[in-house]
Hints:
Layout lengths: L3 H32 L3 H5 L1 H30 L6 H24 L6 H37 L1
Helix pairs in contact: 1-3, 3-4, 4-5
Amino acid sequence: MRSKLAIFTKSMIDVFFYFGIAVLVSVPWVIRMAGKQIPVFERYYWQMVVVFIVSGILALAIFYELRKMFNTVLKEDPFVMENVQSLKKMGFYSFLIAGVSVVRLLFAITPAVLVIILVFTIAGLFSLVLSQVFKQAVIYKEENDLTI
Length: 148
């Protein structure tokens, strides 16, 4: 039986994914407007646009993988190798976001950027460890399926 929490979470991930596309498209205009208030955004306009677009694409890739994973949760079959691969990809994308954020430090060192680097590094590590846990669960499940 599909849980209401899983359905709600999948719906929220879908909303964030599509909202993220809209935000990504608006990045050049948002950075231009932010430049009127924050001089570093005006001074490094193109660099900031590139950093935020690359980070946004990677964040959308993470949401895409989460959407795929939640489809298996809703089918009540989450322990599949596709989810192991999705977790590995999400870990890789998280490390890339942290790396892109390190590049942003060249233009402006702020506490927020340092927090983003830390959060996405931890998220990357967590995703890779979780992929190993899922891989072991898939192996046990497949062995169990063969026994029955």
